[in-house]
Design goal:
The structure holds two protein chains of two kinds.
Chain A (H helix, E strand, L loop, with lengths): L1 H11 L1 H25 L4 H12 L2 H12 L3 H17 L2 H30 L10 E8 L15 E2 L3 E3 L5 E3 L1 E2 L1 H8 L5 E17 L2 E10 L3 H5 L5 E2 L14 E4 L1 H8 L2 H4 L3 E4 L2 E8 L15 E4 L3 H5 L1 H8 L3 E2 L1 E7 L5 H17 L5 H5 L3 E6 L6 H38 L1 H9 L4 H38 L14 H26 L5 H6 L4 H36 L10 E7 L9 H14 L4 E7 L17 E3 L2 E3 L2 E6 L3 H4 L4 E4 L13 E5 H8 L8 E4 L4 E9 L15 E6 L7 E8 L7 H11 L6 E5 H7 L2 H35 L1 H9 L4 H31 L14 H27 L3 H7 L1
Parallel strand pairs in A: 2-13, 7-12, 9-11, 20-25, 22-24
Antiparallel strand pairs in A: 1-4, 1-14, 1-15, 3-4, 5-14, 6-7, 6-10, 6-14, 8-11, 9-12, 10-11, 16-26, 16-27, 17-26, 18-19, 18-23, 21-24, 22-25, 23-24
Helix pairs in contact in A: 2-3, 2-4, 5-17, 6-15, 6-17, 6-18, 15-18, 15-20, 15-26, 17-18, 20-26, 20-28, 20-29, 21-24, 26-29, 27-30, 28-29
Chain B lengths: L13 H12 L4 H11 L11 H10 L3 E7 L5 E7 L1 H26 L2
Helix pairs in contact in B: 1-4
The chains are: A alpha+beta, B alpha+beta.
Chain lengths: 913, 112
């Protein structure tokens, strides 16, 4: 190999070498001529004599150059030509190999490109490496009695679990942001932001629902982003008395203004509040969280205009956590130094906000995280599933490589004579190995090329599945150069991997006897068997994992919801954001409900503050602590529902009545409670006629009915029979609402009617989140659906590949044993015995494979525990089923060669040798 | 890797061996090697001088010798060739083979 490297080096420095050689030759001629002259020859004769003795100078120069120049490329070209000829001569093998490699490499490329976009890609801003996300961590706020004792009294945003029951969050009070920003020695800028949710955006009289990001004055400067047009928000804008300005996303500028430059200076309305567009963000910019792609960026303090009094309270409340922060490190400052500088400062600040010993006992501690890739919500959710998928496709590729190595070994048997002849004619072994490797790398490269085509399709499908059908999903997985480089490297590695063993074996010195009798191949058979066992073991792992995921999905599908799933159309409106106020807003919603119900094909319509599934994420305008008399209700969820909601959702009414048209704003406030709540807090008493008190709102609701239990939240996280309090939606001054239409036929057909009716009622109210109830529920288990489908596909692929390997090996070994089998049959062996003889070997191979992979499967499956639902990672039924499927497939693959063996004609077989 | 036979040598491959032997005694430039072989063979062996250069390239490619710029005895800039450790090993192998071969030829020639 070093000779090859040296040759490459010479090849690259060829012109210098050529020049040096010429100089050397000139010197030679000059010295010879000088010597001849010294012996008394005249100068011109001496020169001619020197040339004569040297021979043809330019030819010798050319000959020398050739030594390092020409032999490299022509040999490679020769190898490639030869390989192509061999491949073309063996079309079915080539097609099979390229196809299986294309699937394997393509699957790897697709999964990797998804990983690259979710886990590895940096924010599209200047020098992302110096960005730092500020988080805090603390012990769990709940005490043993489930009371909340913590300096965090309220939060707007997400808390997520850290290790060992700890709590992590990126939200801070505004006071903490100011403290950390002041005279900061480690950060050049510290900027804050928070998700402003969906708002009503009206441009030139047309309303839409737009996602808002509130940002501090240093946000764009800190991220070092340049505007596509106009200017970006700066510190002058982020002030309570500043003019209300907005920066819009590039996409909105195109959709609504026909281009970035047209948008500058234009007036827009956000929840009916006038703003002026001052700039457009660059097209590639999506904020700091790859999941949310804001349509609007507003100065932080404009939330005083949009959200009103509640927002004003937050600025001064040091126990309300709502602003997220990032910082940009000064050049040369490490994250550890920043942590050391800011940790104590935050501790000092937060200590002062604790009022009791309980709060002081578990103060949040500042934690700095790398910010190059932005916020990690998507990474947190998907890093494990993606690594699991990558492990699976990696395994598939390994099985494919083993399979092709196996087929190549079998084919090497056919080419043994050819190799032996070439070796004996003096071809170097390395040269032949190189030629064989060229062939397998070429094969793998072809597989890689087709794999990329497969991956393009795969990435689209995966992105669609991962997006859960959300329209504004911003994951931009694509086949960029880094992904393609990985694919190319993968192809070459595969080619070397599956080519090396057959190449070395088929040129090993013990092939020499092949010339003499054309038989042999003991070690080759062993290698083949090892490869087959490895394939079986790998397939079993994938089969078992697929079994677990299919079972998980099955369990999720059989979860009892307690409410109707099919033929329901959901969509959301927010009239308050469009300027509707109490008490008119309740009438507006009620009138709309009646008009929806009048659409032909709609049997009934109801409304609630959100869909049942997402009622955990969106709270109604009344919530908080509840009491029945003096007893506090623990763990009940509030749903604000309009008339006949329960009937529409097919939730049975067990006692009393449901909320209906009587329950209007002026009428007595009423509530319906779920069965479990009634049993828990009223025992055997009849709850109808009793009262529930909302402590913060200081309002009493009379219980008028009891509903059956229903599952709230997602299929995985929700409780099966959660405690629910339904309050009458018109009586609690609603914000946004979600309508549910029960339809005949495909619910999505009615989307157009709905939009028309809403536009007629008020063109400023956009209709959002149009989805069927079934689709919304499936969306909550999209990861499980994705896993079950992908893994089932992977399992079929792996099983097929392993079967091809098994079939190939057995066919080869039967062909090797024709003579032996012939003798046995001549001696009276029955066909059944011969079939069994072959099948026994198949079963033995399968059994060895299983023996290796069952412990591995049980060990590895524990890593999947968090991805499973309703099934244990060591589920014996799945294990047995996977084993049975594998054995059946093995017998099926082995049966054809076994049958062929039993059909051997003893006479023909014996005459062959 | 197959090697072309040396047209101008009485024995195939012996030029390589002679060069290695020469360089094992001292570092020399191309012309110096030719001179040394000529003189030490008592002017019996006449190397076709031009053939020296392809041979040098081949030896260098095999890693048996190395070339570097230096000055000759007459103070002229020239590529001075040195034998490497691998080259010495190769020389030992070729010397042994050569001894075997000449012995065999001598036996044949001496046979009755």
């Amino acid at each position: 190999m070093t000779a090859l490297l040296r040759r490459l080096k010479y090849w690259f420095t060829s012109s210098q070498r050529s020049q040096a050689l010429r100089e050397e030759m000139e010197l030679h001629l000059a010295e010879r001529a000088a010597e001849l002259e010294a012996d008394g020859m005249p100068a011109d004769r001496a020169r001619a004599e020197a040339r004569r003795r040297f021979g043809d100078v330019s030819r010798k120069h050319e000959e020398s150059r050739e030594i390092w120049m020409t032999r490299l490329l022509p040999e490679l070209a020769q190898d490639i030509r030869y390989s192509l000829r061999t491949m073309a001569g063996n079309k079915s093998f080539t097609a099979l190999a390229v196809l299986s490699l294309a699937l394997g490499i393509g699957a790897n490329t697709a999964i990797y490109s998804l990983m690259e976009s979710i886990l590895f890609r940096s924010l599209p801003v200047a020098d992302p490496e110096s960005l730092v996300v500020l988080n805090w961590t603390s012990q769990t706020p709940q005490t043993a009695d489930k009371d909340w004792v913590h300096v965090v009294h309220g939060v707007q945003g997400t808390l997520w679990p850290g290790g060992k029951g700890a709590l992590v969050s990126g939200m801070f009070p505004y006071g903490a942001f100011e403290t950390l920003r002041e005279e900061n020695p480690v950060f050049s800028t510290v900027f804050g932001y928070f998700n402003g949710q969906k708002r009503n955006l009206a441009i030139r009289g047309q309303a839409m629902s737009a996602s808002v990001e509130y940002v501090t004055g240093d946000y764009f400067r800190g991220l070092a982003v340049a505007p596509a047009a106009g200017r970006l928000i700066d510190s002058k804008d982020d002030h309570p008395s500043a003019t209300a300005v907005a920066v819009i996303s590039f996409a909105i500028s195109q959709q609504r203004f026909g281009g970035p430059s047209n948008a500058i200076g234009q007036p827009i309305l956000i929840d009916k509040i006038p703003f002026t567009v001052v700039g457009v963000a660059p097209p590639e910019f999506f904020g700091v969280d790859p999941v949310v792609s804001p349509d609007l960026y507003l100065p932080l303090h404009t939330n005083l205009l949009v959200e009103g009094a509640e927002a004003a309270r937050r600025y001064g409340d040091d126990n309300f956590y709502w602003v997220e922060m990032m910082g940009r490190l000064h050049p040369g400052v490490t994250m550890a130094q920043a942590q050391a500088a800011l940790g104590p400062r935050f501790h000092q600040w937060v200590s002062a906000t604790a009022t009791t010993d309980g709060e002081r006992a578990k103060l949040p501690a500042l934690v700095l995280n790398p910010g190059a890739a932005g916020l990690g919500s998507l990474r947190r959710e998907y890093s494990k599933p993606l690594f699991v998928l990558l492990a699976m496709v990696g395994m598939i590729l390994a099985i494919t490589c083993a399979n092709i190595a196996n087929l190549l070994l079998a084919r090497a048997a056919a080419r043994r004579r050819e190799m032996a002849v070439r070796l004996s004619l003096g071809a170097g072994r390395f040269r032949i190995v190189r030629q064989l490797l060229t062939e397998s790398v070429l094969l793998a490269s072809l597989g890689g090329v087709f794999g990329i085509l497969f991956a393009i399709w795969g990435v689209q499908t995966l992105t669609f599945l991962f997006s859960k059908g959300q329209e504004d999903f911003t994951l931009h997985a694509e086949l960029n150069w880094s992904v393609l480089a990985v694919t190319a490297a993968l192809s070459v590695v595969c080619g070397l991997l599956f080519g090396l063993v057959p190449a070395i074996q088929s040129t090993s010195p013990d092939v020499m006897p092949a010339l003499k009798n054309g038989r042999g191949g003991g070690p080759r058979r062993r290698t083949q068997q090892i490869l087959v066992v490895a394939q079986i073991a790998g397939s079993f792992l994938i089969l078992f994992a697929a079994g677990l995921f299919v079972r998980t999905l099955d369990n999720l599908h059989s979860v009892q919801l307690g409410y109707a799933r099919e033929n329901i159309l959901l969509f959301s409106l927010n009239a308050r954001q469009a300027g509707h106020r109490d008490p008119e807003i309740a009438t507006f919603y009620t009138d709309l409900r009646k008009r929806f119900e009048a659409i032909p094909g709609v049997t009934s319509a109801s409304l609630s503050h959100s869909s049942i599934l997402s009622s955990g994420r969106t709270r109604p305008t009344i919530s908080g602590a509840m009491k029945v008399g003096p007893v506090a209700i623990d763990g009940a969820r509030v749903m604000a529902a309009g008339p006949r909601f329960l009937t529409n959702m097919q939730i049975p009414i067990l006692a009393g009545r449901e909320i209906d048209d009587r329950d209007q704003p002026g009428a007595p406030a009423v509530a319906v409670i779920s069965e479990r709540l009634a049993q828990t807090y009223f025992g055997k008493e009849n709850p109808v006629g009793r009262r529930i008190t909302f402590v913060e709102a200081k309002r009493d609701f009379e219980i008028v009915g009891v509903s059956a239990n229903l599952r709230n939240g997602g299929l995985k996280s929700g409780e099966e029979s959660a405690m629910t309090v339904f309050v009458a939606l018109p009586q609690i001054s609603p914000d946004g609402v979600t309508y549910a239409l029960r339809t005949a036929g495909d619910p999505l057909r009615f989307g157009r009617n709905v939009r028309e009716i809403v536009r007629e009622a008020d063109p400023n109210v956009p209709v959002t989140n149009v989805v069927t109830q079934a689709a919304e529920i499936d969306r909550s288990i999209s990861r499980e659906i994705l896993f079950a489908r992908l893994c089932a596909g992977f399992a079929v692929l792996a099983l097929l590949t392993a079967c091809v390997g098994l079939y190939g090996t057995m066919s080869y070994s039967v062909a090797q044993q024709v003579g032996e089998i012939g003798i046995r049959m001549a001696l009276g062996a029955q066909r059944g015995v011969v079939v069994w003889m072959v099948l026994r070997r198949v079963l033995l191979l399968a059994a060895v494979g299983l023996a290796i992979s069952v412990p591995a499967a049980l060990g590895g499956a524990r890593l999947l525990k968090s991805l499973l639902f309703g099934t244990q990672p060591n589920d014996p039924a799945t294990l047995i089923l996977a084993g049975v499927v594998l054995l059946s497939a093995a017998i099926l693959a082995g049966y054809a060669p076994a049958r062929r063996a039993s059909r051997i004609d003893p006479l023909v077989a014996l005459r062959r040798d | 890797m197959g090697r072309k036979p040396q047209k101008n040598d009485s024995l195939p491959g012996s030029l390589d061996m002679l060069i290695l032997r020469t360089l094992s005694l001292r570092d020399l430039h191309g012309y110096g090697i030719v001179q040394f072989i000529q003189q030490s063979s008592g002017d019996e062996l006449l190397v076709e001088e031009g053939s020296l250069y392809p041979a040098l390239q081949r030896l260098e490619l095999n890693g048996w010798i190395e070339g570097d710029w230096g000055v000759t005895a007459n103070n002229r800039r020239a590529r001075i060739h040195k034998i490497t450790a691998a080259g010495r090993k190769q020389l030992a192998v070729e010397t042994k083979q050569y001894a075997k071969l000449t012995l065999a030829i001598a036996r044949v020639m001496g046979a009755e």
